[in-house]
Amino acid sequence: MKHKQSLLFIFLLLCSSSFAQNKDAIASAKVINTVNAKSHLSFLASDELRGREAGTADGDKAAQYIADYYKKIGVKGAVNGAYMQTVTAKRVLLNESVKVGGMSFKPVVDFFNMPASVSLSGYDIKADTILFAGFGVIDEGLQPYNDFQDHEVTGKVVMLLGAGPRDAAFSFQQKISYLAFHKAKAVLLVEPVVDHKSDGLMLHLSGTPMMLEGSPDLVSLENMTQAYRLFISVKKLLMLF
């Protein structure tokens, strides 16, 4: 009999908990509607906030808007009652220049780095010659193929073409890892995308990335030792010939 009473108590407890959760859901649903959603999204996605990038006045304005709304509807702040948390971040700035055969290349327009691929110590690369290694592919299949065969890459600036027909067998990261292992000085990747960048990529490349102190991404940049890689314009290179 006691066993049945215990089961009944547990059942009633679960029902009570479920009902309480439903009450919270119903209360929350009352402030979530198409009118409110459109109002919030229209402001947060507006040109006025210019993307709300972290660490900018526009990002702070968006955060304050959200905090003020939480306070208005009675949501308790998660940081000892407050809505904002103080964090330490570092903004990564790159000052770049490239010159090949006496011709200067313009950053972002004629060449670019992915912001998270350059160590915080930067780079200063000088070379009298550039080693061209095709697509930089190694394929050990039925018909062995090696773009690096008979090439000594240690200490060299190596130029590779963009994605090729054999790249399914040798990924981009494998190319970079191979050159890093063999201590290449730098990698120039000739990529059509440099001449045909989307607006989103242009915005990303023109920005100054911000990373949290101690974050894996920042630690990776601080400890980076792999071969340096640079994406370079096909059109600009053709002007050299």
Task: Summarize the structure in words.
With 241 residues, the chain is α/β, with parallel strands linked by helices. 36% of the residues lie in helices and 15% in strands. It is built from seven helices and eleven strands. The strands form four sheets. A five-stranded mixed beta sheet has the order 4-11-9-8-5. Strands 1-10 form a two-stranded antiparallel sheet. Strands 2-3 form a two-stranded antiparallel sheet. The radius of gyration is 27 Å and the shape is elongated. The termini are far apart. 14% of the residues are buried.
Q: Brief overview, please?
A:
By secondary structure, the protein is an alpha/beta fold. It contains seven helices and eleven strands.
Write the layout of secondary structure elements.
Layout: H1 2-29, H2 34-44, H3 57-73, E1 89-91, E2 98-100, E3 103-105, E4 111-112, E5 130-132, E6 138-139, E7 145-146, E8 157-161, H4 172-181, E9 186-190, H5 199-206, E10 210-212, H6 216-222, E11 228-232, H7 234-238
Parallel strand pairs: 5-8, 8-9, 9-11
Antiparallel strand pairs: 1-10, 2-3, 4-11, 6-7
Oligomer: single chain
Count the E strands.
11
User: What class do helices, strands and sheet pairing give?
Assistant: alpha/beta
Roughly what fraction of the amino acids lie in strands?
5-15%
- What is the average per-residue confidence, as pLDDT, rounded to a whole number? 78
* End-to-end CA span: 95 Å
How do the strands line up in the largest sheet?
4-11-9-8-5
Low-confidence stretches: 7-13
Radius of gyration: 27 Å
Question: What's the overall geometry?
Answer: elongated
Number of helices: 7
Following the backbone from N to C, one meets helices and strands in this order, namely HHHEEEEEEEEHEHEHEH
Largest pleated sheet: 5 strands, mixed
Helix content: 25-40%
